[in-house]
Design goal:
This protein is α+β, with helices and mostly antiparallel strands. It has 2 domains: 31 residues; 132 residues, Roll (Nuclear Transport Factor 2, Chain: A), CATH 3.10.450. The chain is 41% helix and 34% strand. The strands form 2 sheets. A 4-stranded antiparallel β-sheet has the order 3-4-5-6, covered by helices on one side. A hairpin with a 4-residue loop joins strand 1 and strand 2. Helix 2 packs antiparallel against helix 3.
């Protein structure tokens, strides 16, 4: 009788094991974490650092008018709002605009402040403030930004970006 109970409980445990593993995989997928990925703190911090580095490369490419570098950062399905025109701009249109209008900046400097990066599985959000300064007037503009990145085939690329101007306080140069 004991042997039968032991065999019965062992069989029950073995039958339940695969379904609990499937449940774990489903809960990972439902939480936005890709199944089979390492979501340790070190891995997340590494991905955050990768996004921050991409943001620095993107800013450098914009200030030096390096359109080819920008093209590598943007995904082919990149799309950004253009509220002044009431539409969205895709990668090809944005790069075309940059090729004819973007020039290296020498009179002003741009840097990012207060940037945070959040990782949601294979999607990342970078949020921060882009500050533009010049030697005569100090801060000339502030833009709040949100950039959306997706990791495909092990490579992070921007799929969307949006900036909002921060109005200058009354009486301030910015």
């Amino acid at each position: 009788m004991r042997i039968r109970l032991h065999i019965f409980f062992t069989t029950l445990v073995l039958l339940a094991l695969p379904s609990s593993l499937v449940g774990q995989a489903n809960s990972k997928a439902a939480s936005g974490q890709p199944v089979g990925t390492d979501n340790t703190t070190a891995a997340v911090e590494h991905e955050k650092t990768s996004i921050a580095k991409l943001e620095d490369e993107w800013l450098s490419a914009l200030t030096t008018a390096n359109v080819n570098a920008i093209a590598k950062i943007l995904a082919d399905d990149f799309l950004r709002p253009a509220p002044d025109y009431g539409n969205f701009v895709n990668k090809a249109d944005l790069l075309s605009f940059y090729r004819s209008h973007l020039h290296p900046e020498t009179s002003s400097r741009k840097h990012i402040e207060d940037m945070t990066v959040s990782i949601y599985g294979s999607t990342a959000l970078a949020r921060g403030t882009l500050i533009t300064t010049n030697s005569k007037a100090g801060v000339t503009s502030k833009l709040l930004f949100t950039d959306v990145f997706v990791q495909r085939n092990g490579k992070w690329q921007a799929v969307s970006a949006q900036e909002n101007a921060v109005p200058a306080p009354p009486g301030a140069s910015h």
